[in-house]
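Researcher: I'm preparing a figure for a lab meeting and need a structural model of a single chain. I don't have an experimental structure, so a prediction will have to do for now. The sequence is pasted below. Please return the structure as tokens so I can convert it later.
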Amino acid sequence: MLYLSLFMNNLKSLGLAALLFTAIVLPVSGSPLSITGNFANDNNVVLIPFTISETVFVTFQTFGYGGGVNGAGQVILPGGFEPMLQLFDSPSGAVNGGSILPGPDIGGCGPRNPDPNRLNFCFDAYAQVLLTAGDYILALTQSPNSTAGSNLSAGFIFDGDPSFASGFVGTFGFQGDSHYALDVTLSPEPGAALLIAPALLLIGVLKRRRCN
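Model: Understood. Here is the structure written out token by token.
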């Protein structure tokens, strides 16, 4: 069965003082994994370790900035801080594909919600990525508190500054609050196969050419 499984393996060896989640299994056909909470300080970090059993699309969507309804059916109020999502391999802790950055969408908000109280900006983070089977760690921070190096063990650039955003003040001086909301969703493999098929076709063509 294709699944998302949160795990705790080897995270303590990374030396991170961050909030970790207990084990859970999420079938592809089920609801998204919905996580909500509040930061006590600007530089808090939420770590979400997960395992996928085979190649699959994984969608990451935050709701704290602009609000909305998450996968659990909860109404999320707007007004939160500007989130940043970063993906790491596990157990190595190496950065995987860089960051899933927030930011205003000039062409429209797409699946994100604008905040009417902050000039309709859309600073929530959203990404859909194709991941192969393996273990990963997603980090949720307040922008721009990115990783301090190429590995999770390096920590984050504002680890020593719990008030780096002066209490959740974001871009253009917009005041936010401490709440966050995140959905992690797996898409069935047929969706991933749509991207994989052209590559397999090309490999087949090259093999035929070699045979000729």
